Amino acid sequence: MLKISDLISKGLFKIIAPVNPHDTILPESSFQPFITISRESGSGGAPIAKIVAESLGFELYDEKFVEAIAKSAKKRTELIKSVDEKARGLVTDVLQSVLNPEYISDMTYIRHAAKVVLTRAHKGKVVFLDRGANFMIPSEAGLRIRIQAPYKVRVQRAIKYQHIDLETAKETIRKYDTERKEFVRQYFGKNISNANYYDLILNTTHMTLQDAKDLIILAFKRKFKVK
């Protein structure tokens, strides 16, 4: 199966990414600085992304990601949420497309997601949370962050902050970690945990949100020589 990352490296991404024949894929030099954040479930990635975006005056693409894909694909937001960041097989796609006329295929979802990322990254001043954004854009165009913490720490945080029991916390962590890992593996052919795909990896076990935010902003300023 040909991966999106293969198309990027071969300069052929325009075959899959544009939805409109007039869309064009922009060279690396035309992107303005931005940040991508990938996370393990329960590591604090979402609140960290939020505080980083607020501190820099950047736009956060998390829920907005879903809304933008829905608008681009001309589909209901709830429908996009139901398939968002999930790996799917051919059989599932075929059955769902027959049973549900509104269904959006996996590659159509990916094409629109890529269009959203590329268009928004061109303008810069944005923080992308998950959805393989760091694999859709040239690595030197943005700051790529990975947020993680040991499994036991993440489970305890889920219990504390989501007010759920131990077994539910374990299942929730497992579910989201697996979905994100398989999504990246299937559509980008990458191991989401590979350190080579990130500029900075933070273990948040002993970090506050402020600590993580300060380190990310420092890394951003160093990479892009921003004062």
Describe the 3D structure:
The protein contains 10 helices and 5 strands, in the order H-E-H-E-H-H-H-H-E-H-E-H-H-E-H. It has 227 residues and is α/β, with parallel strands linked by helices. Helix 2 (45-56) packs across helix 10 and helix 3 crosses helix 6 (106-123). Mean pLDDT is 83; it is low at 1-26. The chain has one domain: P-loop containing nucleotide triphosphate hydrolases (Rossmann fold), CATH 3.40.50.
Structural class assignment: alpha/beta
Q: Please name the fourth-level CATH homologous superfamily.
A: P-loop containing nucleotide triphosphate hydrolases
Q: Evaluate the radius of gyration.
A: 18 Å
In the CATH hierarchy, the third-tier topology is known as Rossmann fold
TL;DR?
With 227 residues, the protein is an alpha/beta fold.
What's the helix and strand layout?
Layout lengths: L3 H6 L25 E5 L5 H12 L2 E3 L1 H11 L3 H7 L6 H10 L6 H18 L2 E4 L3 H4 L6 E6 L2 H12 L3 H23 L11 E4 L5 H16 L3
Helix pairs in contact: 2-10, 3-4, 3-6, 8-9
Identify the notable features of this structure and list them briefly.
five-stranded parallel β-sheet; 10 helices; globular; Rossmann fold; 52% helix; 227 residues; alpha/beta; 5 strands; 10% strand
